[in-house]
Specification:
Oligomer: single chain
Largest sheet: 7 strands, mixed
Strand order of the largest sheet: 9-8-7-14-15-17-16
Helix content: 25-40%
Structural class: alpha/beta
């Protein structure tokens, strides 16, 4: 796999650039990036935020400046982006800024540990090659390589050039019809269910949803209260029944970990009678365990699969290889949807395309 990845690790680029290093954004992402920069002996020169977020803030002892103020202080610099974004106007603004002063976006795993580097790819060369060999079309192979190149280098142009809109997935890869039974693991507030209903013209056989976060579950109930044949579960998806600690981080990024909130979890195999035609997983790093808990369902029904592959570094090879070990006939596609960093990079699988 490394023969296709010629880029330098982002952290080495930052260390060797000779330019001032400036962080764009505040919060948990910036904290994590600060820690990695310190490990590499890289000094941060300044921090800036979007104009509406400056307002006299400080972060890690640095005054939070405007972008214009940083430009006036440093003739040239490297920007390290420390937040995620997917709305088109902000992404286009960031792309324009990248033409003035280069912006790099590090990959910090949502779950698990370690950095996504050339060394990580080399360590798992066999698994990456096996996953790559499972991809069913040239577009998937090109996007897969571009996402790997981005994860190593932080170069956001790789993401812009490999974007795919979700509509293509529903219409051409998953090919949804009017008689689907969908299981949505990590349903959040029903955002994917809304996409599903748009794609099917509001027609379906049955809908199931798992959501462990209490606040998100209440949003899900409110947003989907008009639906018939909809069964929500206030549960996390896992390999077996259990009670785990839950780490609430707000929005859709809450996950199982070193939290203090007990949450019930269970396997799809124990809760969904079937048959199902579409299984979606966006569960913040628990996909491997959830697949174990859905193995009987997958073997029985051979549903279309929608697997998010950006929470753990290993997701890029582990998830398709796990599914392939269950049902070798699955054909895999890989797509990246508009997002910086490489969130919304997903495997889609079925038996027909």
């Amino acid at each position: 796999m490394l023969e296709f990845i010629h880029d330098q690790n982002i952290w080495d680029t930052l260390r060797d650039s000779g330019l001032p290093i400036v962080i764009y954004g505040m919060g948990n992402g910036a904290d994590q990036i600060f820690s990695v920069l310190q490990e590499y002996g890289i000094t941060v020169s300044a921090i800036f935020a979007s104009d509406g977020f400056v307002r006299g803030h400080s972060f890690r002892g640095y005054p939070v400046q405007t972008y214009q103020a940083v430009c006036e202080t440093y003739p040239d610099f490297l920007t390290v982006m420390s937040f995620a974004v997917h709305d088109r106007p902000t992404m286009e603004r960031i792309r324009a800024m990248n033409q003035q002063h280069r912006i790099l976006s590090p990959t910090i795993p949502v779950a698990g540990s370690g950095l996504f580097t050339r060394e990580f790819i080399q360590e798992h060369e066999v698994e990456f090659d096996q996953a790559f060999s499972l991809l069913a079309d040239e577009r998937s192979r090109q996007i897969y390589l571009d996402v790997l190149r981005f994860k190593v280098s932080g170069n956001i142009e790789y993401l812009f050039r490999c974007e795919t809109e979700k509509e293509e997935v529903y219409s051409h890869l998953l090919r949804l019809g009017s008689q689907e039974t969908m299981v949505d693991l990590g349903a959040y507030d029903g955002d994917t269910i809304r996409e599903f209903l748009t794609a099917t013209g509001g027609q379906y056989r049955r809908l199931y949803a798992f959501e462990p976060d209490s606040k998100n579950f209440q949003k899900l109930l409110r947003n989907m209260e008009h639906l018939e044949r909809f069964q929500p579960f206030h549960l996390g998806a896992w390999s077996h029944p259990d009670t785990l600690s839950f780490q609430r981080q707000g929005g859709r990024n809450s996950r199982f970990g070193k939290g203090e909130i007990p949450v019930e979890v269970d396997a799809v195999d124990n809760r969904i009678p079937g048959p199902i035609t579409l299984l979606k997983m966006d569960i913040e790093g628990s996909e491997r365990q959830a697949l174990e808990g859905a193995k009987r369902t997958i073997l029985r029904d051979r549903p279309k699969l929608y697997l998010c592959a950006y929470h753990r570094n290993e997701d890029m090879f582990q998830l398709p290889l796990q599914v392939h070990s269950y049902v070798p006939e699955y054909r895999f596609h890989f797509r990246h949807h508009p997002y910086i960093p490489a969130w919304e990079s997903n495997f889609y699988a079925n038996l027909s395309n």
